[in-house]
Here is the input.
Amino acid sequence: MADVVSAVRSYLLHQSSVTDLIGQRMYFDVLRQKATLPAATISKVSELHDHLLSNRSGFVATRLQIECHSTTRLTSNAMAEAIYKSGIAAVKGLTHSVNIRGVTVDDGQRNFVINDNDGGDDHVYVTQIDVKVSYQE
Here is the structure.
């Protein structure tokens, strides 16, 4: 079975506007320990399977969360903006073995800071962006 998270990640890592900022550093679910920043993570937040009275329709809506990590707020925001402007909302059709029917940016940017646990002044700035991917199973 094709994985929608892998398909969206692969799409984004083929967009120069994204890779110019993070290279290939987009990880599944969690940021690697001591990861080089800037980097991003992508994870599945929820999944809704559409049903008919007789059975499943085969239509699925999956909400993905992308977190952009950087040592500056401006860079983490720029990463989220690059993802937003990458053409992700126009993706339709077969993409990395997933039959995508539509993508919407489900939520705007949200920001927070991860403070340094060692008592230093280093912080990791995180900008989140959510996308909803509708696809046919």
